[in-house]
Inverse folding.
């Protein structure tokens, strides 16, 4: 998506609950990557949860106040960058379902949704920064690393961003991408799914870890911290010496 030049170099960051509470380093890496690319970044301090956990659990009445707060906090026309395919899809797609019976809020969603981007989408489709990121990484002379990539469900199936993260990984001169089998298959997290259906979730996680082992990669990259948290637990439990790493962290490291 090509935005006017006066908008594409500005962005608001929505950091997500899991990043804020459990993986703040992902948010810090996101900021550094965007700032290296000359993006003027805004961080609205009134932001909180987007409401996805409540929405996915069927508690729409509880999700709506959180969604309204998001819509009141993030206004204007500059892009909203979210380092999570899951949360980006909640705002861009599922808010429309959440507010289907409230025309005023549905109109706000329709106005805001085109400005919402998952991080890899923003870097590739808005900034067109793939080559620039590769050039910066070349100068940084980072350590060689073999990575495999897990496609997170909402990023692939709801947003349809299937190529952007791979394009960025392949642009890094110090990174070799080793595709795992069934990279597009769910890791078994699914938010509350992992709690409600622990046995099924565990079996799916075992399959994912087995496929990571086949790749022989020392790093597993994804665009959602929630999936990486789940996968990281499986890797540790099965004594697999692979590191889960958010795309933002890998880009941050590669760009020095």
């Amino acid at each position: 998506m090509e935005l006017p030049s006066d908008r594409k170099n500005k962005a608001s960051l929505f950091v997500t609950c899991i990043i804020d509470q459990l993986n703040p380093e992902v948010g810090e890496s996101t900021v550094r990557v965007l700032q290296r690319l000359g993006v003027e970044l805004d961080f609205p301090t009134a932001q909180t949860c987007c409401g996805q956990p409540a929405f996915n659990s069927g508690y729409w009445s509880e999700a709506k106040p959180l969604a309204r707060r998001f819509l009141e906090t993030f206004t204007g026309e500059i892009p909203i960058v979210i380092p999570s395919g899951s949360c980006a899809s909640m705002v861009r797609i599922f808010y429309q379902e959440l507010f289907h019976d409230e025309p005023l809020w549905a109109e706000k969603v329709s106005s805001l949704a085109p400005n919402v981007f998952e991080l890899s989408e923003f870097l590739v489709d808005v900034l067109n920064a793939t080559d620039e990121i590769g050039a910066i990484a070349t100068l940084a002379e980072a350590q060689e690393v073999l990575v495999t990539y897990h496609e997170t469900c909402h990023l692939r199936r709801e947003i349809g961003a299937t190529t952007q993260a791979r394009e960025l990984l392949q642009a890094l001169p110090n990174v070799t991408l080793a595709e795992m089998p069934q990279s597009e298959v769910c890791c078994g997290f699914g938010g509350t799914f992992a709690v409600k259906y622990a046995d099924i979730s565990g079996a799916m996680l075992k399959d994912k870890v087995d496929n990571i082992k086949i790749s022989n990669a020392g790093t597993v990259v994804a665009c959602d911290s929630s999936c990486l948290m789940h996968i990281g637990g499986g890797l540790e439990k099965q004594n697999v010496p692979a590191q889960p790493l958010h795309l933002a962290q890998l880009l941050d490291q590669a760009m020095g």
In short: Residues 198-215 form the longest helix (18 residues).
